[in-house]
Queue: 4 jobs
Job 1
Amino acid sequence: MDNVSLSVKPGQFVTVVGPSGCGKSTLLRMGSGLLPVSSGEVRRSDETLGYVFQDATLLPWRTVQKNVELFCELRGFDRGERKQRAKDAIELVGLSGFNRHYPAALSGGMKMRVSLARSLTLDPPLFFFDEPFGALDEITREYLNTELLRIFALAGFGAVFITHNLYEAVFLSTDVLVMSSRPGRILKSFKVPFPYPRHLDLRFDPAFAELTGEVSEVLRDE
Amino acid sequence: MSTTRRSSSLLRSSTYRLGPPIVVFLVVLGIWYAISLSLDPDRQFLLPTPNEVIDVGFVNQDNLFQVLEGLLWTLAVSMSGLVIAIVLGMTSAIMMSQAKWIETSFYPYAVIIQTVPILAIVPLVGLWLGFGFTSRVVVCVIISIFPIITNTLFGLQSVPASFHDLFTLHRANRLTRLFKLQFPNALPAIFAGFRISAGLSVIGAIVGEFFFRKGIPGLGRLLDLYRARLLTEQLFTALLFSSLLGILVFWGFGVLGKMAVGKWHETT
């Protein structure tokens, strides 16, 4: 990576697109502290961070409820608080009634929602999403895109979202950054003008197509 | 109507499961009779017919009780050995999982325990610790500890990296990581290890008794005795109970494993 800089405020949804191997995931791993920062610096106003990985990373021996409680548990919240927060988060992602299921019994999309709920319990001001919907089918992905925007509007966090799907990028974001590979640089950043709440039909809007086309062109030229 | 359908399908599935082994059992029984009856009468003691085995070994209560007492004693020895092996094995595996240098220092010796011929160690154990209960238990521990160490260690170390990331992100310390992540992750492997070791500890108890003849005779001692006196009917009875004990222990730990992790893990 070379001279990459980005900042996110609550209410801002920044998506990073780029070819595989350009260091998109590395950016998040360094930003979160999972990887040591080789050069440069990371500043966060609050230590609490939501992080949704490519894989739902649910612990198979815990039920949905217990999985969602995990982060509160690790951070030492007491039992009652933990339970209540998990219950609220599960409700927010629309999975009430599945509290006692084990992850193995859930579909890919439901697992991602549990994964999201798990981070929501901490009410973080900032969320990292590392290609969370990459492994899902198109219909589930579209559905989860709208779900994510609904929750984004409610919870009001700032988001850094990694994807290689341009439609997803433009649909979700306030800002789209296009990265190049080796060295990973930010080629161009786009402001997405469409107001929230956004509906899936937005994808068939000519203005949407035009913006997506521009992003695609930058990506192709690199 | 739906209940009859369910019960008939239950019947069918148990027929599928129990049918084949029963057929095999009957065939083996038939071959046994055929060989036994085809032997010269003065050589028939080498393979008595199944009903002679039942007459002498089961119907004769003195003989039966002798074998049953031996069975209980062997069970006590093997389970004591197994419990010690579980405690020692899991403790050492947990320690090895906590520091690479502990693992590299001690793991080779765990492998040696496994590979050295047990029959070569057994007499030594007798010389050092006497020829009674203690030595028998020690043999059980030696023979059954390795699967517990390897399986526990494997389970603790095979946590996916992304799970570790979650715990790193939320500042979990070493103990939290061990108890909330590595240990639950290891449970299926640990129970698989228990099952293998339980069978081995029964073998260890029986082998030990061939060498250590003090105290109440267990199944191993009885097997040796019946063999020496050519009491083949009783020898067969004791053999039957030895394998039943092995099966029982193996099955018991299978059930225990299912109870512990069956809700989220497919155990075979």
Job 2
Amino acid sequence: MALPDPIARLMEELARLPGIGPKSAQRLAYHLLKQDPESVRRLATAMVEARRQSRFCSVCQDLTDQDPCRICRSPGRDASVILVVEDPKDVQAVERTGEYRGLYHVLHGAIAPMDGVGPESLRIAELGQRLLQGGVKELILATDPDVEGDATALYLARLYQPAGVRVTRIARGLPVGGDLDYADESTLVKALEGRQEI
Amino acid sequence: MRVVRIGWRHFRNLVAGGVELDAGVNLIEGPNAQGKTNLLEAVAMLAWGRSPRTQHDAQIWTAGESGYRLDGEVERRSGSFRIAVEASAQQRRRWLRGGVARRAGVDPLGSLRAVLFWPDHLELVKGGPAVRRDFLDEDLGQSSPRYQSAVRRYDRILSSRNALLRGGEPSGALLDAWDAQLAEAGLAIRAARERMVAAIAPLARESYAAMAGASPALEVRYVSGVPAQVSDAADFCAALRERRAVDLARGVTTLGPHRDDVALAIGTRDARSAASQGEQRTVALSLKWAAHRWLTEQDHGETPVLLLDDVLSELDEGRRRGLAQLIGKGQVLLTRVPNEALPAGVPVGRRLRVEGGVVEVLAP
């Protein structure tokens, strides 16, 4: 039995979202159809408005509704430190700590030759511009600790170390509150290598 | 260590069932193409999380079905645990311990180790270097999760670097970034392989001598794809920079452990070019025998499960003796077609009969 066209189209669109397979798309679609029209309209409006009002910050390239973004405009932030991340959600992760007072730069990905992603596909030129404008003393590289993230960090270090900027890489090691025997081998090895005097 | 019980569903021609295994020698009998090898493959998959025959799971589940599952109960000195492997048209293959999906082999105390020897392994001597690298990675490497993760990481870095070499004109800084990573992973692999080959060389020599009698000794030597003068990451990167023009022209990385080999010689004769059929068999068996002993040492005396498929044909007196010695230790699954003779002194713990995908335990 064929589904009515509008429902089939809704499922198709939902199934395009990351992490949503055909089964989940079906469940979400039927859930939406059971809601009252007003709450569905609120959801649709939220999606359309979020999309319409967001753009990339011209300074840090993070998603924002005003340009420059709140963090880049904040007088309370230390503009001499830039923390470089792959994704906007990484900015949120670091912000949740409440400990970091510097600025950010979002690359929107990592260098991945196997997927055809080179430096020119990332927001690296924009980072170079910010450094040229001066005033930056430290670049903290916080790309993911995988092969692509490490390569991106090494590449950026090679680009900017000669310019006299202090370039650091965030440490890797054991999660706080975790059990030592649950840590995977390579994390343990890195944690051992990065051990410190107490 | 041993597999106490193994169960299967829609695994090749084994439709649904299970069997208890003996802690010693399990003799698996039956005519050809009835499912004997599938039973060995099933145990290997529980150990490694992947098939020694194929990477395509759709070839594994029974024709007309859309998935398979294997279950095993493993007993080690430190305790018992359940492991499973499953895959289906909707779900990629995964390895589970206690019902939780994990990477196979990472936790030494929660893993099954196995050494497989079957006719394909005669290629260990005459085949290309890749066969011998597989021996290092798959047989010896299973003792070290750290080594295996270095190999996985290296493979990914290498593929990325090669993609970069082929993708036009990468900048020097970009290649430098990949070279630095390749060097770090590459040196870890070289150190581990050096150590593993040095450890198994005397064991293989001893085993070969026991089987081949008065023949010249078997020499096993690691041949690194990294130039000998490279001693640290800076050297490695310098060597890569020297080869950069060549690498760019060919679109591949021409230096590194992906070009390693293991040299095998009988006395001064290169076994690859000069060994007879019989000598090849003896050398291959010696390497597996050495791997089995070394893994046992690494695992503080716990023997890996030994899977022997179709090894009883074409045995001369020496290899018959060698096999009997190997079989004397730990759990063994050994296939045989009807009427093949067993080496003298092999104590059979349990006889299983496989016919048309049905496994039954025979009266002792």
Job 3
Amino acid sequence: MTNLFASATDSPQPVAAPVAGPGRAVLQLTGIEKVYQTRTIETVALNHVNLTIHQGEFVSVMGPSGCGKSTLLSIMGLLDEPTSGTLELDGRPVQSYSDKELARLRNHKIGFVFQSYHLINDLSVLDNVELPLLYRAGVGGKERRQRAYAALEKVGLGARTGHFPSQLSGGQRQRVAIARALAGEPEIILADEPTGNLDSVMGEEIMDLLLTLNREQGTTIVMVTHDEQQALKTQRLIRFFDGSQVS
Amino acid sequence: MFFSYLKIAWKVLLRRKFFTLISLVGISFTLMILLVGVALYDRAAGAYAPEQHPDRLLFGSYMQLKMSGNGEMKVRPSYWLINQYLRKLGPGTQVGISGEVQAVAAYVGGRKLALALKPTDGGFWQVLQFRFLAGRPYSEQQARSGEAVTVISARTARQYFGAGQPAVGQVLEANEKRYRVVGVVADVPTMRFHAYADLWAPYEPSALERQPEVPFGESELLMLASSAAAVPDMRAALRRAVAAIPMDDDSRIAFLPSTLGESVADRLLARYNWTSKPVQLFQALSGGAVALLLLLPALNLISMNVSRMRERASEIGIRKAFGATAGTLAGQFVVETLVLTLLGGLLGLLLAATLLRGLSGSYLAAYGDFQPSLIVFGWALAATLVFGLLSGAYPAWRMARLSAVEALKHART
């Protein structure tokens, strides 16, 4: 733990990705706390986190297991509520939104990429990628398919649309997951250890894909990772320890 | 989106083949049993020839009889009693008398033909509307004079005289008595026990049946009102006629006229002496059986849906993460249950049709041309869909309320 803390202070700042200057704040976290309470134990997952994510940024979040990285991502992704503090999306606090409105915001603004892909095994690659559009009003079947094809082309899987997740390699599955996140054309992609289950070559491929997305489409990306080298390729690296942001 | 629901519903059904099979078997057998049961009852008590107007018919098969020195008995009336006192029940009411079906034997080319003979008077043919394929019924005059005439069923005509051979005017010998065939009627199912026989002949009451002052015997009174609205008047006329029967001071007769449906229920249950009110017991048992039959697959569906929750946690989490609301997810899971229920329903209809086709040729339901009732199928399917909806709604609600974070955390995809 202390080593990691030390490495946070010693580590070089990421420089690889081009920075065009901070855009408007798309996500603003102020005094965010997340406490898991059981009858006997109180666990602080996030402790007064203040963080701003700007439009077009590629931010990586690092820290040891259990330090609150994934909780942070869940709160940013409107999947979980903070115990206290304020989360603003595009300048508007989200706490007042109903469940239905939060679902709509997730659908339009946010795309998720998970470490273990989380594809629906019963659905084909194309059907998996269509998923965000399925819940979007006004998008018909034809448009859904077209956009899903386009997203799959972007990740180089245009020829695998009829396959099922079980027929793909880990890297291919993660590319499908990225295509799914892209299909809805969200402003923000939240990636939770997207290369965690992949070998280094596949991991590099996925990382390149995310960097290209950020660079060419200006998609805001927040990525949780354990891979220092990959984190260094992003514009900003945030480190967490015991629920607190340490750099 | 609905098409997508259907697609995932189909995949889910295929994924858990064993559970799907169990559920389909449960639903389809329930519907099959309901359909077959109702079809059998309908064939026994529905509006078919010869009882085409069951709402106008009453059957005096039994009466409560108390004679001096004895307790009360439930007995059949004698020919004498009906003929003497109950033949005239007012204008517009047709009255007929029939006796117990007798087993008789006829021989064709040395082969024994076991036949059921029903003795009737001429009024029998006015009360019941048989479908005559050839000839006509015998008249009251012929019946009273004891003329050796008979009306036979199409099957009997075929077996005795040969397929396509004319029967009317020919002689049929049964139990060494030669009958002249005056008419051929369409086959009557055995379940239509008031009318069923292979041949009908003029009633020749036994000495006991004809004996004056003996009210009990083995006969049956059949009554047809001019309209359904006239049935209460017919009942009242019967009561008056019964009240006019001269009796000792401590003797009493009370007729128990029953509708066709009541007589079927009575026939099904009364012989077991379970109750003095077999019709009510039949209705209670039928209602209970239907409720139980529908409840069992519903409970099975609930259990299956709840057990599916865990395995589908990942999918729920994913769908929520990408914008599905709790309502949308609940809708999806309900659609899945409904698809399963609908499939089970269609399978049940198919099974019922097959079973009824098999039953049509069996001894139990001889001549019964059974068809599954589409109206009953509609109601049964609607009931199953409602149960399916209810059984799917609770698990769907629970699944939809599952926290996306928790679902994703515990899922391994």
Job 4
Amino acid sequence: MIVQTQYFRYDGEIKLQSGATLGPITLAYETYGQLNADRSNAILICHAWSGDAHVAGRHSPDDPKPGWWDDAVGPGKAFDTDKYFVVCSNVIGGCGGSTGPSSINPKTGRPYGLSFPIVTIADMVEAQRLLTDHLGIERWLTVTGGSMGGMQALQWTVSYPARVRSAIVLAATARLSPQTIALNEVPRQAIYADPNWNNGDYYGKTPPNAGLAVARMIGHITFLSDASMREKFGRRLRNGSEGYGWRFDPEFEVESYLNYRGHSFTKRFDANSFLYLSKAMDYFDLSYGLPSLADAFRKVTAKFLVVSYTSDWLYPSWQSKELVRALLQNDIDVTYVEIDSNYGHDAFLLEVDRLAELTRDFLRRVETTH
Amino acid sequence: MTLNGSRPDLDAIIELIPPKSRVLDLGCGDGELLARLIREKQVTARGVELSEANVRACIARGLSVRQGNIEEGLADYPDGAFDYVILSQTLAYLDHPIPVVNEMLRVGRRAVISFENAGYWRTRWRMFRGQGIGGDLCSGEVRARAITLPQFEAFAACMQAKIELVRLFAGDKPVRILPNWQTRVAIYVLSRAQGVV
């Protein structure tokens, strides 16, 4: 499946949740499959923290790597592009072609850096709504995503209840727990502590790669689980049988994995975007300013499929159960499954076969009811 | 369960639920009862089920179910959210039946409870021969409580629940005499007695 990234430009300004404004806005997006005649088969996939618009397929025949969720999106897959018109766009605040802190501020002619306004999950959804209008899609068959993508799916059902027939929310939450905020703050501190960060003003100079790499390593720990680390690395050494080296170089396989992941991340991700997106998640709380979480869903009409994973300690099952409770209190049609998996938070990307079965059955029901 | 695949209680439950009711099935298994209720009675159906495999089977049938332990409570559901809350062949496996049945009577106008009667003469005969109640230890079946008809009726009384309807079965046939000897499967429909909160 060969796909090209497209760009949608909105010349106006949007009002952000914080009260600030942002505009003009560019959104990078990709589409897969065909929109049907009555425009009823459109699925929006929202990406997580480090994702982008390139969810599946390859950009050219010799592209070495497919999109970030290629296992789940394509002909015959969980989100079947033979049946559905699938759209994925890079969030605002990101660095995958959409407007973010590394974009040029048209007012100054220089990259925004920290002058980029704080954006929230609701602001990301507002930008996606502009793209939705541009594509001529009145109502999404489903909006889906894992982690931060799941938060956007939830936000869609709340912000635009009439435009979402269903939501598939994977490994997510309706509001971040203090543990997860803590696990976002430490990576931010790692970036702040890198002198190259320079208060976000590093474009055209040396970027804060050391800080960003540490930040990403912490992230990878939270994406795995105790069990998956034991399975994947054990106490194995890189040198195998040579034994301990009695020095500080990375010797254990788990260390070299984290180092590799951390450093390769700096080649594709902007440190400021990393900061902005983590802050967007910290602020995410659908009950903010309301008496209870249930109050957030009063006008929601979408059907829900909520999935959590037993070993996910970043967005643990109790948070999905809390969400399900709030939905049930509003008499919303919700299906909840806790998938037994050792893969930790990463399970939403990896347990694709079990997910495919669920999405097929769930979407069939959404399509046949109103 | 231990009924050799025969579930006369399912037919009876379907018969007593009026069309287009709102129904919650606790411990809905693979969703057979809910699917039949939708097909035969056009009900609005919801289910709760503990096992991931069964939840998947329900979703494959196009049902709206949530994975969860019914003993962790039904607090999520508003008062009177359902016309009927069903607990089919599950009472015997509950650790704490009182809070579950209390909640059934809160979220539903009627509670439908079916169970195997431990007073059934064949069961007594098995006991008499020293064979015990329920499956063999080797069967892997989880620990179940033995419940007789008088025991259940005493339970309903202490729950201050009104017995609205009783259906008793030996095999596929209704029971007429000596109910606690003849009945293999019992279905009770309970409601909250008037004036009790």
